[in-house]
Amino acid sequence: MSSPTLPPSESFKFSMLLSDTRYRGMSLQVITFIIFMAVFFWLVDNTIKNLALLDKDVSFNFLWLRAGYDINQRLIPYTSDSTHGMAALVGILNTLLVAFVGCIIATVLGLFVGILRLSKNWIVAKLMSAYIEGFRNVPVLLWIVMVFALLTEFTPAPRAFKGAEPEATMLFFESVAITNRGTYFPAPVLAEGAYWLLLCFGLSIVAVIYFIRYANKQKKDTGKSLPTFWISVAVIIFPTLILFFAMGQPVSLEYPYLKGFNFKDGIHLRNSFLALTLALAFYTSAFIAEIVRAGIMAVSKGQSEAAASLGLRPNKIMSLIILPQALRIIVPPLISNYLNLTKNSSLAIAVGYMDVRGTLGGITLNQTGRELESMLLLMGFYLAVSLLISSFINYFNRSFQIVVR
Amino acid sequence: MMTKIAFVRKKEIPPSAPPITEVGLIGWLRQNLFSSWLNSILTVLSVYFIVVILWDFIPWAYGGHWNTKSLRECLDLDPDVACFSVLTARWKQLLFGLYPAEEYWRPTLTFIFLLLAIVPILFPRFFRFFWFSIIYPGLAVWLLWGGSFWSISIVYIGLTLGALFFLSLIRRYLKNYMVAAILAFLFTAVFLLFISNPLVGLLNVILPISLPFVESLKMGGFTLSLIVGVTGIVASFPIGILLALGRQSNLPVIKMICVGFIEFIRGVPLITLLFVASVLLNYFLPPGTNFDIVLRVVIMVTLFSAAYMAEVIRGGLAGLPLGQHEASASLGLTYWQSQRLIIMPQALKISIPGIVNTFIGLFKDTTLVSIISLRDPVGLASTIRADQKWNGIYWELYVAIGLMFFIFCWGMSQYSQYLERKLKTDK
What we know:
Strand content of chain A: 5-15%
CATH architecture of the domain at 219-427 in chain B: Orthogonal Bundle
Order of helices and strands of chain A: HHHHHHEEEHHEEEEHHHHH
Low-confidence stretches of chain B: none
CATH topology of the domain at 219-427 in chain B: MetI-like fold
Shape of chain A: extended
CATH superfamily of the largest domain in chain A: MetI-like
Number of strands of chain A: 7
Largest sheet of chain A: 3 strands, antiparallel
Largest interface: A-B, 60 and 61 residues
Strand order of the largest sheet of chain B: 1-2
Mean pLDDT of chain A: 82
Radius of gyration of chain B: 30 Å
Number of helices of chain A: 13
CATH superfamily of the domain at 219-427 in chain B: MetI-like
CATH class of the domain at 219-427 in chain B: Mainly Alpha
Number of domains of chain A: 2
Low-confidence stretches of chain A: none
CATH architecture of the largest domain in chain A: Orthogonal Bundle
Helix content of chain A: 55-70%
CATH topology of the largest domain in chain A: MetI-like fold
Largest sheet of chain B: 2 strands, antiparallel
Number of helices of chain B: 17
Number of strands of chain B: 2
Oligomer: heterodimer
């Protein structure tokens, strides 16, 4: 009989650092770390030397100097006398505006196209796949310049609206003018008391949120479901509407009108903004459509069959069984597509839209010669947005994903 | 008691034909286009839409002029049709950029070779020609940029010698792969740094084979898109796999570096990276270095799509059941063996659609180089439109460029669907 014995303990040899699995990981990490730090310091050292050669320093003081250039679209007060920092801020807001509007349009279009692509109607399904393939397989930069060309070349000049028998007319009861200088919408004008209206509107939304919570609780407790949708719509619309007329219509619309060779008043959306937003929205909607389709198809057929055998109606199957499961698959890639749209908005330069890359990373960079600092700030901005969004995705995944081992 | 049966059918009734509304063209129409009133409305709307588009597009494209000298002439002839003459006049530029006209055969040949080189990779039936895919990159670089044949082939010779050195080391002397790899790497580096130059000089004297040198800034058009796109695709795939493995690794330092790299690259737009390549890179390199702008762009595009590739492959790795890792470990496979034989084949299979989407995205993103004023097709379109003769032309150019990109990207997505079907093991 032999009893199991421990293997003789080996004495440590230097070669074990690379061959023994106990030490190999550690030595590999040390080597990697040394190489990484060496490369990093090499780059920093080069940068310091180069800056010394060019007689430059690293300083962000230029942000407080006068910018001296105009920005044609601004959401906050800005003149050419404002600072470079303000210019960067205007650019950031412009980027966020394009991203926000673009994401909304892209989501609506994408949902629409994605669901229609699953339609049993042959011709509609084919048309939608043509839409998706067309937008997905052509560079977004090309779409941006094409939409811009469409908006500037095929729309009438403002003076075409002039005269007793104009060549072009305004749309929607003389309220919207599409010209080659941009599109003019009526602008809401807030008179005295309009803030009460806004307050009322806000309160109705809060009320609806509480009502939906109550309805959900009711459904869980008793199994009875209330007509949530119609009640919510009514709560949102009617109090505000009644107040609007009761207070003597404190919000009015200011219509754009032709003065000289251009339109005055109203909201002016420049073609650069429209082209960028629409092209990005169309492009992204094609990706969103595919995500929606994949999400719906990923819910196995057994789920809807099981729901049907429990006696649920088709629309209930969709809203209670399919959509909650599909959303879990749809939402993370959907949000990362929002992120892509935001990053693609840096192509604004192709149509002359002044986003943050155009102000901070464009004119400011060229005027001050602060390439390093401007690019650092620019990348920092995009990184911050992206980390914010990806931490949201992670939060979503943690709270909604099915937990496996 | 038997009832009298007046009639018993001896033979089965032949099945009657289905109603005419359920089969054939009418049946198809009813089922697919007019199954409900909503569907009927959608069908009518779609048909109306298609007819309107084609009604405008077909006469415009079909009657287009191909042989005028300028846009003015086109408009004088007939302002309502396309003026494709711009393509007739400038197609060479759109394809080759400013490449010298007498050397056009070189990019053309490179492109034909490219098609030949990807066949063994795409279709396993032709795998025996894989050697051509290996020599292709060098061949392409030599054909496109020119210079001495030997200065490219010496790299191949060096790498081959290094590989042979590695193999002989582990066959005869050493058991440890890592040590052998490090030694072989040092050997190759020494060869390429110190021995190759005199050797190239010698070979140039003995057998001078060379092509006229063409500088990078002359490259443009689809040649440039393909150079950046194909190099990026080929290089980003292995880097992406390594990054994905690094991110899944349980060695904290390696994991941190990979996560940092991936999140940084994915967090910034490609444009800013290209700007770094064109403006800032000179800060980061030793004073006085200035290397090729196309190479810089290729490196940036590669790193960019490698980060996305890593995330796609990580998705594939996460999609594998944990049991696969555990099973391969319990079989006694080492880390690299289990990655190579068990994990990666399955993970890559799951992530094929994502991988190909990344490739397509990369190829489309090559148009962004026009923003740092390289002459890719989109950049050339603005150059052409700035020409007095073609000032004011839009659609003809954009449609042609868009079509070229569409063909490549759509081809890739069709291939990925074919591959998915072929590799599908569960029904």
